[in-house]
Amino acid sequence: MNKIEFLSRLPLFRGLPDEELRTLAEIAGVKTYRRGETIFLDGGEGHGFYVVFTGKVKIYKLSPEGRELILHIMGPEDSFAEVPVFEGRHYPANAEAVDDTRVLFFPREALLQKICRDPSLAMNMLAALSARLREFAQKMEDLSLKDVPSRLSAYFLHLSEQRKGSDELDLDIKKGLLASLIGAKQESLSRILAKMSERRIIEVKGKKIKILDRQKLKKIAAGDRTLFS
């Protein structure tokens, strides 16, 4: 897939004419990162934003004690670090390649010139940022108000929504990373997965998760502890 075809599929650039997509493709550089390699650090100067072409990227913060809190896992076609484009300041979190990863990088100055010429691009970016803000607010609510089974169930339902309601899910991140993403210890995650399997709520086969009882999963995600006591 070439860059123009790839860009045309992104919500950020949806509806832009081919000429505008070609201009964006010209300013977008391709960067490659090895698994575990840092893309940028919290507080680093925000030179531009990124879109995942292949691979996965984790966005995370570190507590003063060094505990890692994963904010997002970004996969192909996901954009990240848009805020510094508008704010002109520093990256607000760390970014690291989870797998061998390729990204498209859009330099801030070149992109700002493009936005000035085409305000519809700014509207698309603001819409994407608004969606990210809602997702972040939901994550903070989940971490503060819900228990681990509820957060895990909500995550599985989110994956299902991304796959158009499919009950067949590919758990394409390691369990340790998933545990960090939902704010749990890996041992707790393993126990919860085992209990969900025993109760025939889900079926776990390696990295494959199959939702067996969606209604019970929804009830757990909503905070119903009776099904998991």
Structural commentary:
The structure is a single chain. This protein has helices at residues 3-8, 18-27, 83-87, 108-117, 119-145, 148-162, 175-181, 186-198, 214-221, and strands at residues 29-33, 38-40, 48-54, 57-62, 68-74, 79-80, 94-97, 101-107, 168-170, 202-205, 208-211. With 229 residues, it is an alpha+beta fold. It has a 4-stranded antiparallel β-sheet with strand order 1-8-3-6. A 4-stranded antiparallel β-sheet has the order 2-7-4-5. A 3-stranded antiparallel β-sheet has the order 9-11-10. The mean pLDDT is 84. It is elongated and about 55 Å long. It folds into 2 domains: 3-135, Jelly Rolls; 146-228, Winged helix-like DNA-binding domain superfamily/Winged helix DNA-binding domain (Arc Repressor Mutant, subunit A), CATH 1.10.10.10. It has 9 helices and 11 strands.
What labels would you give this structure?
single chain, 229 residues, alpha+beta, Jelly Rolls, Arc Repressor Mutant, subunit A, 2 domains, four-stranded antiparallel beta sheet, 9 helices, 11 strands, 44% helix
